[in-house]
Predict the structure.
Amino acid sequence: MSNIQEKIEQELANARQVCGTDGATSAECAAAWDAVEELQAEASHQQQSHPEQTSFEKYCADNPDAAECRLYDD
């Protein structure tokens, strides 16, 4: 995930530079901010598709035979 964060930081710097030189209403400025938004959306998507395990889930992964981790069929 840090790789995508680095890319976001690079695109943020690029967007600020482009908007500073070409103006905030230029097409190049809008395109630069679109690139930032796309990367942020991808980072959010990756975070949602790989949620972090809770402490209980980690415990059960390490101790699958523990009583509180057993799964029963109905």
